[in-house]
Amino acid sequence: MIALRFEGVSLVLDVSAGQLPAIVHWGADLGTLDLADVEALILSNIDPGGPNVVDEPVRLAVLPEHWTGWVGRPGLSGSRAGRAWSPKFTATDVRVDGKPVINGEDGATVVNAGVASVAVDAVDEEAQLQLQITIELCAGGLIRARAELINRGQDPYTVNDCVLVFPIPQRAREILDFAGHWGKERVPQRRALGVGIHLREGRKGRTGADAATLLHVGVPGFSFANGEIWAVHTGWSGNHTHYAERVFTGVQLIGGGELLLPGEVILQTGQTYSTPWIYGAYGSGLDAVAARFHRFLRARDTHPTTSRPVTLNVWEAVYFNHDLDQLVELAERAAAIGVERYVLDDGWFGARRNDRAGLGDWTVSAEVWPNGLHPLVDKVTDLGMQFGLWFEPEMINLDSATARAHPEWIMATGNRLPVESRHQQVINLGIPECYAYIRDAIFDILAEYKISYIKWDHNRDLIDAGTAPDGRPGVHEQTLAFYRLVDEIKAAHPGLEIESCSSGGARVDLGVLERTDRIWVSDSIDPLERQQMNRWTSQLLPPELLGSHIASARSHTTGRMHDLSFRAATAIFGHLGIEWNLTAISAEELAELREWVSFYKANRRLLFSGDVLRVDFPDANLVMYGILAPDRSEAIYTVAFNGSSDVMLPGRLRFPGLDPGRRYRIRPIPVGRPPSGLNPPPWWGAIAKEFEPPGEHRALHWGLPPDGGPGLVLSGAALGSTGVMAADMHPEQAILYRTEALD
Ligand code: DGJ
């Protein structure tokens, strides 16, 4: 028996009597437990059975086994040509942090604080299968599990499916996961959990803009602040599943795994199949669940520092029109307003003058860049900025030298090509020669230029993604090869950062995040959309990993127009970038943009080390997002009106999460121009503004000193419960606030 406890979470495992590990409790902290407590908990968890089911209580292991009488989805589905399809594993060894505990003196290991890793070895002699299950309690109080299956038989063993599960209590009956599509990623959806399986399959060969991302099941009505929630995330960038199951007995669980295509994994003698990590987060309210993932990610040695450089990406400024003079002018203007990293996007290589040609030919286009990228790279680095470059290593256009030379490298099921998508096909990194070619091409570019950053794109689903000559499914291998390639590049280029982009935000998962440093949330930079997408993407990732740009006034994806104040007040809560043709904007706009860049730089340490706060409002038009310093000494918030309300004024705004016993000064933060239609409440102490006739919707001055004025002093308790009157403003506008502790 093993009881683990960390960061407000207890995890109690039953590993007794040579059985696979089963979770007896995963949830609220149970305090210090001794052996008798753990035994009592295990006993308390055994159900009384019922009519017309197997005579022994069915024990739900982390890898559910059919032989126990479990008739829900099994953990392992596979066979040796029809045999060994219902294995019965016997645990042979249990270790906690590498130390054996089976046959131990006291029979229980209680780790009362800290991260811990439990490994259980098991075997089924008859089925000739060996299994290792690892369960960890990680930083942030997150749990995760994975399995390794080894074929010990002479005949091949086909793995059809291998999932791991975490049991959840019956009071958790409401599901929240995500939908989405290009330009609108991570749209929350809720439904009730009934008997059966709520199954989310990702069959796109990449994580997908429509991925479940996180599947939560909580007590009905759970919100950002309240309600117990158990959530699962599959840390994998290929085909995958997330699911919640409620069986007829009332047993409930959440789980996930890789989704394997027919015959994709056939283990020869001695070969191993490893599942991805399946992560679990427990918390009261969605913010608490998100905080576990954030703390887990921030605890990594490789986690980027809080000084995330302000980035200029040229994509929406120039698209494929690479003109050195304009790109240099962009660089000069960017540097002048404080940009720290410059990223050259798609279009610099081969015949890539549009999206129909060139993918796969990773050499600089002599036609567009007669002197190579040197003039631009030199200019950018001379200006003191880092240089970043776009690649899409897993893709190929038929109109490319590489496709003409190696048609067998294109993923396909046989003699026909898959349907095209964005005029491109997938190049097969599972073929060693192809992998070596792509790796060497990237290495050559990295050797020639001073490149600090790669934007790694992936712009189509994997359809009919097989391997020549017989067309066997290759998504599993492709996903592993992608990971290997990133790992190799990173190992050879310490300090190089990589952004995970996939038609916007279609590769957002902890598998890719184990090895990359930023994700591109969406190709939609419209702040109205980003208010939602950034907010929900931060359910998994902390703000410093979310690529968050300020784009042109008219959104290229939605056509909507927004003031710079709204675009910027939205973007600064992520890793700030600019994706806007700075060569075509006015001096006033540049000056205002510079103000926002300075504000971001002055505050990024807080923004990227604090706890994310999202406030529940009955009126969905009102959106509030805050970052609280871990010691609660200060916090920054954005309050956005995404639409018009049914009532005239939004009323009081609460600022929860502060230390109730401390006194705080709250004040607005005036950056750039004020939001349109600003009507400040008296507590701002703003200088009365002159009457603005209807139609004049742009207030030019805040009527406040640069520090925001005296504001109000209130206790954390009062700010969290009573709140202060909100300023009014027009829809699609935002205001920043700051709270600072005075004692
Ligand atoms: C899709 C990405 O999401 C965009 O940001 C851009 O890099 C294009 N691909 C380039 O083709």
Walk me through the structure.
The mean pLDDT is 95. This protein is α+β, with helices and mostly antiparallel strands and 743 residues long. α4 (324-336) runs parallel beside α5 (374-382), α7 (432-448) packs parallel to α8 (475-492) and α10 (527-537) packs parallel to α11. Strands 5, 6, 8, 9, 10, 12, 13, 15, 16, 20 and 21 form an eleven-stranded antiparallel β-sheet that branches. The protein has 13 helices and 41 strands. The structure holds (2R,3S,4R,5S)-2-(hydroxymethyl)piperidine-3,4,5-triol. (2R,3S,4R,5S)-2-(hydroxymethyl)piperidine-3,4,5-triol is lined by residues 315, 345-346, 390, 457, 459, 501, 503-504, 520, 523.
Rg to the nearest angstrom? 27 Å
- Provide the structure class: alpha+beta
Which molecules are bound besides the chains? Answer: (2R,3S,4R,5S)-2-(hydroxymethyl)piperidine-3,4,5-triol
Distance between the termini: 46 Å
Strand content: 25-35%
Q: State the share of residues found in helices, binned by percent.
A: 10-25%
Total count of helical runs of at least 4 residues: 13
What's the β-strand tally? 41
Q: What characterizes the major β-sheet?
A: 11 strands, antiparallel
Note poorly predicted spans: none
Mean pLDDT: 95
Taken from the alpha-carbon principal axes, the silhouette is globular
List the helices and strands and how they pair.
Layout: E1 2-6, E2 9-14, E3 22-28, H1 35-44, E4 76-79, E5 90-96, E6 99-100, E7 109-111, E8 116-124, E9 129-137, E10 143-151, E11 157-168, E12 174-181, E13 184-192, E14 196-202, E15 215-218, E16 228-235, E17 240-246, E18 252-259, E19 265-267, E20 272-274, E21 277-284, H2 286-298, E22 311-313, H3 315-318, H4 324-336, E23 341-344, H5 374-382, E24 386-391, E25 395-396, H6 401-405, E26 425-426, H7 432-448, E27 453-456, E28 466-467, E29 472-473, H8 475-492, E30 497-500, H9 510-513, E31 518-520, H10 527-537, E32 546-551, H11 564-571, E33 575-579, H12 587-607, E34 611-614, E35 622-628, E36 634-641, E37 652-653, E38 663-669, E39 712-715, H13 716-721, E40 724-725, E41 733-741
Parallel strand pairs: 1-7, 22-23, 22-33, 23-24, 24-27, 27-30, 30-31, 31-32, 32-33
Antiparallel strand pairs: 1-2, 2-3, 4-11, 5-6, 5-8, 8-9, 9-10, 10-20, 10-21, 11-18, 11-19, 12-13, 12-15, 14-17, 15-16, 16-21, 17-18, 25-26, 28-29, 34-35, 35-36, 36-41, 37-40, 38-39, 38-41
Helix pairs in contact: 4-5, 7-8, 10-11
The structure holds (2R,3S,4R,5S)-2-(hydroxymethyl)piperidine-3,4,5-triol (DGJ).
